[in-house]
Amino acid sequence: xxxxxxxxxxxxxxxxxxxxxxxxxxxxxxxxxxxxxxxxxxxxxxxxxxxxxxxxxxxxxxxxxxxxxxxxxxxxxxxxxxxxxxxxxxxxxxxxxxxxxxxxxxxxxxxxxxxxxxxxxxxxxxxxxxxxxxxxxxxxxxxxxxxxx
Length: 149
Prior knowledge:
CATH topology of the largest domain: hpI Integrase, Chain A
Number of helices: 8
Shape: globular
Distance between the termini: 34 Å
Number of domains: 2
Largest sheet: 2 strands, antiparallel
Order of helices and strands: HHEEHHHHHH
Low-confidence stretches: none
């Protein structure tokens, strides 16, 4: 979910079904207290549809209990080990969301609003992780949608 939405691990562990409607996820960010609104696009909808509703909290462990922040971290580490991934951190998943949202045509401000970062942080992530070719392709697609190309 974090790779698609940019939601931080602490907020994932607290996310409630009541925070979700047909079009968005709205929750108060733990770090800032600010309201975040994440649009539900197909990849997020697929995660939500595959998540059993066992408690008021969205993400629960196999015993039906809500994940703790540390528990999510431990599960992530186990999954990394099983997949033989060494360099990825949970927080990097938020960077994946930034990259995806940008290449889908969202502006730096829109992406920053969704993931709760500054526009400068979004620009730095793009600069580091998004290739020039991907940036150009995203801009062309956005221009096509506005019928200016």
